[in-house]
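Support request from a user on the community tier.

User writes: "When I paste my structure tokens into the form, the page sometimes reloads and wipes my input. The last time it worked, I copied everything first. Here is what I submitted, just in case something in the input itself triggers the reload:"
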């Protein structure tokens, strides 16, 4: 929110542009969180505080609170901003990644990725990565739920590109070696898992215009492909074939954003699902 506030007060960019550059997948989410955070619509906020360095500062009044009261207030704020409720229904993962660092890489990342791609339920994404020819040296950062890859370009003026792979599956499914994952276990875990994870990735050190392409496989798409792969199911009815084809298809979108010192990427995964985000610098305004 603080980054979007700077763009709102320091530029004349449209609200929709600021929303994308702040990492929101839709303007409605940005408006929702902005109003909850600042107490007013972005346009109203811009009119009220543009040109005022400390526009939101007011005379402070302080009240002594107990530790429990402070905890309750913090939980309420977190719940309002991120829709986090008790019971851990929504998990929030925040990542700060400095693109100018040279010592991010972890040796285990590639092994983790290879193990994940060996799982049958990951095959839709594995097929995409096979066409991209990612290399072991491209893996630069990661933790359970995401892996960041960087291609350093060709050394002849082509800037680095980034891939971020997000995945949201049950711990049991992810932590079980691929050779021990039975068909019944995979189907049960994919269907059962309902938790939501929101990822906020902050790529520091990036400037200019970027194309952000997304490819997401929902639970339904994964199950449809997995059912065909493991059970060999075929459908004679043309209408049924068409529906099944739609079910297996990923959700794809492409956006163009401008970064100033930082590029924010947000992903929301609900239930068993996975998403690949491909980030490429755009030269000379070309798409």
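"...and here is what came back when it finally went through:"
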């Amino acid at each position: 929110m603080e980054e979007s506030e700077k763009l709102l007060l320091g530029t004349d960019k449209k609200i929709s542009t600021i929303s994308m550059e702040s990492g929101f997948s839709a303007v409605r989410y940005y408006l929702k969180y902005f109003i909850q955070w600042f107490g007013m619509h972005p346009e109203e906020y811009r009119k009220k505080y543009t040109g005022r360095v400390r526009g939101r500062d007011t005379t402070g009044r302080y009240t002594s609170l107990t530790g429990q009261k402070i905890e309750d207030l913090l939980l309420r704020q977190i719940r309002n901003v991120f829709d986090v409720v008790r019971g851990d229904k929504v998990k929030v993962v925040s990542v700060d990644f400095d693109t100018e660092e040279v010592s991010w890489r972890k040796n285990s990342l590639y092994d983790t990725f290879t193990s994940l791609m060996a799982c049958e339920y990951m095959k839709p994404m594995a097929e995409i990565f096979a066409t991209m020819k990612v290399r072991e040296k491209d893996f630069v950062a990661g933790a359970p739920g995401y892996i960041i890859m960087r291609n350093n370009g060709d050394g002849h003026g082509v800037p680095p590109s980034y891939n971020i792979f997000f995945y949201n599956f049950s711990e049991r499914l992810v932590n079980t070696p691929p050779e021990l994952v039975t068909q019944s276990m995979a189907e049960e875990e994919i269907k059962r898992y309902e938790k939501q994870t929101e990822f906020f990735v902050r790529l520091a050190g990036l400037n200019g215009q970027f194309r952000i392409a997304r490819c997401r496989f929902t639970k339904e798409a994964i199950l449809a492909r997995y059912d065909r792969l493991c059970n060999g199911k075929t459908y004679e009815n043309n209408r049924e074939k068409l529906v099944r084809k739609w079910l297996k298809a990923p959700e794809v979108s492409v956006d163009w954003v401008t970064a100033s010192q930082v590029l924010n990427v947000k992903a929301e995964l609900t239930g068993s699902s996975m998403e690949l985000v491909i980030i490429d610098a755009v030269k000379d305004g070309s798409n």
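Agent notes: The reload is a front-end session timeout and is unrelated to the input. The chain is about 40% helix and 30% strand. The longest strand covers residues 196-217. Escalated to web team.
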